[in-house]
């Protein structure tokens, strides 16, 4: 792939280990407010609910506020844990505060960024919220690897909308032909990029079955075979 000059990464679930850091954030918040639920049981409900709400958010069917409140309320409802709306709001806000303070990255993140940085210009495209994403990158020590960071608040749209990829390319002064997108979400990252005309690699850490024509890696260090 000698023609590639610019690499665009997703952040959550691709470089930054969202599930591990999220569990630690909830552990801190629940302890502070004496929320008496089993954390592992809570996460069994919360993780798929969070994915569902993010999908709705990408489709413009819920707002940021509805996403942050709804995923918690629905999880507590499934647990049959009585909690009032005001406390849910407090937990939501403090979870967002604690989340960027944890800095676990996927195995191989720093190694592969060190390998790629001398050869390519590196960038981020994320649907996450700017303040939170900036904190994640800063606290995990990866900000210095990236020349540009594009988020959905800047672009006014979310992946897979082609306008966010166009915004990111313009910010990076890059072309479609010389760019590639790497991310965990088939719809938002991979198909979004491919339909816009950017090549893509699926970070398939969960080893789900995907179409054979899509390039994939199961670990970040495997990117060396493509780049």
UniProtKB/TrEMBL annotation:
Pfam entry (one): HAD_2
Entry keywords, A to Z: Hydrolase
SUPFAM superfamilies: HAD-like (SSF56784)
GO molecular function: 5'-nucleotidase activity
Domain of life: Bacteria
Name the record gives this protein: Putative hydrolase of the HAD superfamily
